[in-house]
Amino acid sequence: MLRYAVRRLLGAIPTLFVIITLAFFLMRVAPGGPFDQERTLEPTVMANLNKAFHLDRPLYEQYAVYLGNLLRGDLGPSFVYRDFSVGELLGAGLPISMLLGACALLLALLVGGTLGIIAALKQNSTVDYLVIAVATFGITVPNFVVAPVLSLVFGVWLGILPAGGWEGAHPAYMLLPVITLALPQIAIVARLIRGAMLEALRSDHVRTARAYGLPARLVVIVHSLRGAALPVISYLGPAAAALLTGSVVVETIFGIPGIGRYFVQGALNRDYTLVMGTVVIVAVFVVLFNLAVDLLYAAIDPRVRYD
Amino acid sequence: MTDAALPTAPAVAGRSLWATALRRLMRNRAAMVSLVVLALYTLAGIVGPMVWPHDYATVYSNYVKVPASLTPYPRANTIVPGAERALARARVEVDTVDVAGETVTLGLTASREIDPRITRYLDRSDLFSNARIVETGDDGRSAVMEADIARLTFVFGTDSNGRDLAARILVSIRISLMIGALATGVALIIGVLYGATAGFLGGRIDGVMMRIVDVLYSLPFIFFVILLVVFFGRNVVLMFIAVGAVEWLDMARIVRGQTLSLRRREFVRAAEGLGVGPAAILRRHIIPNVLGPVIIFMTLLVPKVILLESFLSFLGLGVQEPLTSLGVLISEGARNMRNAPSMLIFPSLALTILLFALNFLGDGLRDALDPKDR
After folding, report:
1. Which range marks the domain in which residue B357 is found?
2. Looking at CA atoms only, how far is residue A19 from chain B in angstroms?
3. I want to staple B130 with a disulfide (CB 3.0 to 4.6 A). Which of A72, A129, B148, B354 is the partner?
4. Does residue B226 share a domain with residue B134?
5. A267 touches chain B (CB under 8 A)
6. Mean pLDDT of B198-202
7. Cis-peptide, bond into residue B371, ω within 30° of zero
8. Which pTM was predicted?
9. Does residue B118 sit in helix, strand or coil?
10. Which fold has domain A86-300?
11. Chain A within 8 Å of B338 (Cβ-Cβ)?
12. Rg (CA), chain B
């Protein structure tokens, strides 16, 4: 298993390399530059700025320098947020994004899992239809509608929660963003669990377990849920990577200083290093979580073996 | 037993796959309701902006962020101050203001002779129209002016510039539906052609073509879209052709998989044995058989694209002023929700209902065309 994990991690290096290369050159091909402003700068100032950030060198040289620095863990200076390095910006924002994402993930698993199991156990009952309706709602309504509406209802009309802002990891400021992030995930997890549970409950090994007279709770939790967890886990791999790296909508609406905003802002401001930093972080998360999914698969399903 | 003794079987009218699917779809109540809703949306998108009494770009500066209401403006208590404010810069004294029915009568005096062109001050206000001087005093220093009260109704209220929200929602629906159709069409054409070619040719060409798809797949999608915006500027139509050109990846995979499996089927082999050319096989056997999954995927792609457009517009990357889109309206609504909640609620509702209808119709079509996949 350990050898497998190491091999997978090594195998991810070419993928990361391709993504970084593509992102680097695509970003540079785009017209405009980081120092374009409404008022054009003096040519000498511009030249000096370009020189200071090594933008005057040939592109392949910049690329080589970037890769070299990246290997040493240096993401470079931000072009737009002066006096900050990309590493500092991401280091400050990432824990916040990750905290919110992890809470949302946990909430999605708990609520979505419970709803899915209940719906599957009471198939075609009112509860089942209610869960399906909630799931459809969660999948259909986009987060940029959910976030301001939640903020309006709880923050402005009822006034029981802050409509936005960030005061450290204070639960009151986290609640609405976490719910917004979790809602679509709850819906998808509930749907997946329901479908997989329905199948698992009809399978031979569950029928055998029942025939042995095992208690119903044990049959559901141990024997059925184990099989039903597989599709959820393979969904959650990439979803967790996306959740933990922040959401531009949620962070914009609730005014949260995470890293979700940097991607869009960075691309629009041509803050090359910031965009590259975000791309690297997201790509690393995706690779890691896909690996975690595969390892969990082996842990849950003994038929899956890696060697 | 001879042939003559066989009873002649009554001719059974065969039902095609499509007829069966249509029947199943008709029985699906959610899908049918969605179909009606979508028809209404389409009608609203096409005809709405033309017949609606307000233009989406007209600014009513007297009615900024008024709440949604069915009773027409101006309110009775705003007429008198409104008239006084409108004439505040006309250098006349407003002595009397009488409101009678649909007209307002003003008694004016001034230290100099009253210029008859001061009616424009009233006309320029959104509250009054057709102002006229009915009576002038002997010395020209006093006058009686009459004006009709302009009754304007804003069923959904107005936005922060004083534009009618309902008209803006109608024009947004038009944009959303147009973009949904455009981008889906582009994705459909590229995806089907690419996927069918890869699946049909097979072998090494297929391998190379699918690796290209894989590489494009691994790039973060939103990164791609933002780059497209950066390249094409904020030209909406061009951008959505580009978005369609990104969304074709799934379509290509589905079509390729179907084509690969169809290719090994007996009827394709038989056609090949009979000497039918590849183009004819594609047209006669492959394309009709992949149409089902393609339609299902297409109906699910439309809401995806509409959502994407709204999302980009929400971020300020999509449709630009004065044209608008549901995403722009929602983002403006989110900024103004404290003092004008209707600006957030109505566009959100419009988008949510549209997405619900499209999703239900997509699910219904999937159930109807592919009953195994329930």
Report:
1. 32-55+157-373
2. 6
3. B148
4. no
5. yes
6. 81
7. no
8. 0.79
9. helix
10. MetI-like fold (1.10.3720)
11. yes
12. 31
| CATH number, domain with residue B114 | 3.30.1360
Look at residues B208, B154, B185, B143 and name the one whose alpha carbon lies nearest to residue B294: B185
- The Cα A223–Cα A206 span in angstroms is 6
Q: Enter the tokens of residue A13.
A: 């290096």
Helix, strand or coil, per DSSP, at residue B323: coil
Instruction: Give residue-wise pLDDT tens across range B72-121.
Output: 777 777 777 777 777 777 777 777 777 777 777 777 777 777 777 777 77
CA distances from A294 to A112, A195, A234, B2, B83 (A): 22, 21, 8, 66, 74
Chain A positions in Cβ-Cβ contact with residue B344 (cut-off 8 Å): 148-149, 152
> Where a domain ends, among B149, B175, B207?
B149
Angle at A238 between CA A237 and CA A241, to 5 degrees: 95
pLDDT (tens digit per residue) in A136-154:
888 888 888 888 888 888 8
Calculate the CA A134 to chain-centre distance.
22
Q: Does A59 touch chain B (CB under 8 A)?
A: no
* Residues A144, A148, A149, A154, CA torsion sign: positive
Given the structure tokens 């089927």, which residue do they identify? B265
B364 touches chain A (CB under 8 A): no
pLDDT at A107: 93
Is-contact A147 A218, C-beta < 8 A?
Answer: no
Q: Show residues of chain B in contact with A151, CB under 8 Å.
A: 334, 337
Task: Tell me the CATH number at B242.
Answer: 1.10.3720.10
Q: What are the helix (H) ranges across A220-271?
A: 225-244, 248-253, 260-269
- Dmax (CA) of chain A: 84
CA B29 to chain centre: 24
From the DSSP assignment, how many helices (H) and strands (E) are in chain A? 14, 0
B65 close to B72: Cβ distance less than 8 angstroms: no
Nearest of B73, B107, B102 to residue B87 by alpha carbon: B107
Q: How far is A257 from chain B (nearest CA, A)?
A: 17
Q: Is B344 on the interface with A (CB under 8 A)?
A: yes
Q: What is the pLDDT of residues B228-280, one digit of tens each?
A: 777 776 677 776 777 777 778 888 888 888 888 887 888 888 888 898 888 88
d(CA A189, CA A233): 9
What are B140-158's pLDDT values in tens digits?
777 777 777 777 778 788 8
With contact defined as beta carbons under 8 Å apart, do A63 and A25 qualify? yes
